Amino acid sequence: LAVGFRGPSISQLNLNTGDLNGKHLFNCTAELSQYVSTATAIVNAYSPVNLTIEPDTTDPVLVGFTVSFLCEAESIPPPTITWFRISDPGNPVQLVEDTNITITNTISSTMTSSNLSVTVGGTEDFTEYQCFADNAGFFNQTSRIANLTRGFKAVITQDPREAIAVIDEDVMFNCSVSGFPQPMINWTVDGNPPDSEFSVITADLDSTLMGVARNNNTQIQCNATNMFNTAQSIVVLILIAGPPLAPSILPINPGPREALIQWNEPFSLIDILDYNVALVSMDTDAIMPFTVEGLSIRVNETD
To answer: Cβ neighbours of residue 185 under 8 Å, at least 6 residues apart?
Structure first.
């Protein structure tokens, strides 16, 4: 059987890949009478993945509160975004939705936006998260790591103790705190910052206020503040006694010589049961009769 042959038929298809995205199949079919031949060409129109928004490290968050991380990426076709928890740097764990995790994706023609919401639990103080954008395995991009830290309210763990002192006596108050971020400690005396008669020494979570007892019922307050709250502890400085005033010497009687020395009653918030009043003579040979009456001493000299 002789078959006539005329040179090849050539057909060319020109494509603008800017109008394509993803994997496309193109079929070329040649027909001659009852004979049909088909060839398939595969065109993968993929562009590199570009991360336009990466998740950011958050401020510390209290247990029970929810924090969100945002990841956006663009490519042709739009990429798939997956989230990972980096508990072990060599073995990240892919996240799936559960009672504490919600993942919301929004996809357009060339862009994918993914929002990860995490409700902070009470098991981990520090967690790292990362997003991964991929378009069918041709191109991918991994975000920076975002940190989530569990926060703790400021708490005063050691309250300053109430002080009972004599006037002009040195007094000291100690205050210890806890919390994350680390609380700042400050003191007030009767609602105002301590004056020059007080000094403060603070080291990390411990602080000491030192001063001189001047006034009764002085309110001493320790304050611990971080981003979540301010904790306060108030104590009172009580003066139980002050020193007596200088004794007053009355004029000596020109007859039988007599002197009365009297002290004013000292300040005291407690009952004074007795006073110790005694006569001391610089001349050990001199003996002068005297009588004690409360805070007074009466001296008689007959010679």
So the answer is: 175, 177, 202, 205, 207, 222, 223, 224
Over its length of 303 residues, how does the chain's per-residue pLDDT go in tens digits? 444 545 567 777 777 766 666 677 888 887 777 778 888 887 777 889 999 999 999 999 999 999 999 999 999 889 999 999 997 777 899 999 999 999 999 999 899 999 999 999 877 788 999 999 998 888 999 999 999 999 999 999 999 998 888 888 899 999 999 999 999 999 999 999 999 889 999 999 999 999 998 888 899 999 999 999 999 999 998 877 655 544 555 555 555 556 666 666 665 655 665 656 555 554 545 545 656 665 666 666 554
SS3 119: strand
Q: Is the pTM of this model over 0.70?
A: no
223 closest CA partner among 258, 255, 193: 193
3-state secondary structure of 118: strand
Q: Cα–Cα distance between 160 and 169 in angstroms, integer?
A: 17
Tokens, residue 34: 């009852």
Measured CA angle at 154 (ends 151, 155), to 5 deg = 125
Q: List b or e across 185-211, with b for residues whose CB sees 16 or more CB atoms inside 10 angstroms.
A: bbbbbeeeebeeebebeeeebebbbeb
Burial of 144 (0-12, 13-18, 19+ CB in 10 A): exposed
Tokens (6 digits) for 54: 């990466």
Give the CA angle between residues 226, 208, 191 to the nearest 5°: 65
Q: Under the phi-then-psi rule, with left for phi > 0, alpha for psi from -120 to 50, and beta for the rest, what region is 142?
A: beta
- Measured between alpha carbons, how far is 44 from 47 in angstroms, rounded to an integer? 10
Residue position matching structure tokens 């009764």: 216
Single out the residue of 135, 146, 9 nearest to residue 71, CA to CA: 146
Structure tokens belonging to residue 148: 């989530």
